[in-house]
């Protein structure tokens, strides 16, 4: 019998589900993607049909195997990554959801979070903690099942692993847990204080296990073989591992609808002087690693607006060539704050602004200005993280995500940071990262050192601006951001 040839990564995104099959050389042998729908029952509410997400997960897993011409027996291990803090309650007996999953994007518990903060308990509307409480308090079927001890609570990855293992594994890992607002960074377990404040029982939450560990075998009915489920990691932390930013002081950025930047700070918990979020990165064996995370709320969404809102581009991919068709922005500038400003400003009231328009302004100038605005915002996030780096200012930035295909964006990013920006061959860095973690758990790769040669650079963008010109552009942008915030206040 042939040895297993692949590791299967399942990436549960906010708008779609992806499966990626990697071979021992770290190359993609098969991939598949399916969209998943969201529903919006009220303003600010975002929900998913968790059972439909599970069914899509099976579809992409089987499709990726088919694309590689492989069967389930070829899978050495399975890893699960994806969106963090999407809350699910399901039945211990049937495995079926008791209510639609509440997306991490849902802000229905904002007032409750304010109450908790006033009482000295940190809670964010984007975390799962108050969403789980809301399910417990407001959904009769959930409350009744919880009172009988039959309800299980968790985030989406725990539900999917439960389904995949036919109920044999009820687990999460520190990277997912640390985003929920239920995690105690000093004990690395569930916080008794938050559990008490939210009337949640620890035995109704998943066990926090290592990020790289064989939890249980997948039921062979799903992919035709009982492959071990051997890794869990939140999408951003998994992308850090996928980019092999394994040393303290290394940093990656994932360009999606928003842009998420994560700095590896090593094995000591580190708090930020600029408001970045401390999170667990991963746990391998007994070693827990940490990061700081910052975000630009609007990144790829700004380019989508050029297509959907203004109609000046037909396809998001067109922004690269159109932006390159002019040598500069012609004086046009943009602050892409369509949903407020994230790190380091944390100003939800700020709104996007375009200025410097003249009679000679063309769509190409506007497109280039928006891309430059995204790069400038991401540079602010990078600088906020760099201020707390344990190893000094990072010497390079590794980029992934859909918008990382845009050469102009990455060149502008390098110019405005003054450091090289590197794009890997595999842009699905989260999937690659959780695949590496799963492979390590079962000996598909011998150790972390064996992984370092798997990362391959597809393109490297070197800074071309002088330090003086770079600082002049950055200073102009700082003034424009201040003006935008002043107008919104």
List the keywords.
23 strands, Nucleotidyltransferase, domain 5, 24% strand, 2 domains, alpha+beta, seven-stranded mixed sheet, 489 residues
Short account of what is shown:
The protein has helices spanning 50-67, 110-118, 129-138, 140-147, 156-164, 174-177, 192-198, 220-223, 235-242, 300-310, 318-324, 363-386, 407-417, 429-441, 448-451, 467-488, and strands at 6-12, 16-23, 28-35, 47-48, 75-82, 87-91, 101-102, 151-155, 171-172, 183-184, 189-190, 207-208, 212-217, 228-234, 251-255, 259-266, 277-284, 287-296, 333-335, 353-355, 397-400, 421-424, 457-461.
CATH superfamily of the largest domain: ATPase, nucleotide binding domain
Order of strands across the widest beta sheet? Answer: 17-18-16-15-21-22-23
User: Spans of 5+ residues with little confidence (pLDDT < 50)?
Assistant: none
Total count of domains:
2
Label the structural class: alpha+beta
The count of helical stretches stands at 16
**Would you tell me the overall average pLDDT?**
95
Q: Give the CATH level 1 class of the largest domain.
A: Alpha Beta
CATH topology of the largest domain: Nucleotidyltransferase, domain 5
Shape: globular
Major beta-sheet overview: 7 strands, mixed
Write the layout of secondary structure elements.
Elements lengths: L5 E7 L3 E8 L4 E8 L11 E2 L1 H18 L7 E8 L4 E5 L9 E2 L7 H9 L10 H10 L1 H8 L3 E5 H9 L6 E2 L1 H4 L5 E2 L4 E2 L1 H7 L8 E2 L3 E6 L2 H4 L4 E7 H8 L8 E5 L3 E8 L10 E8 L2 E10 L3 H11 L7 H7 L8 E3 L17 E3 L7 H24 L10 E4 L6 H11 L3 E4 L4 H13 L6 H4 L5 E5 L5 H22 L1
Parallel strand pairs: 1-5, 5-14, 9-12, 15-21, 21-22
Antiparallel strand pairs: 1-2, 2-3, 4-7, 6-8, 10-11, 13-14, 15-16, 16-18, 17-18, 19-20, 22-23
Helix pairs in contact: 3-4, 9-14, 10-12, 11-12, 12-13
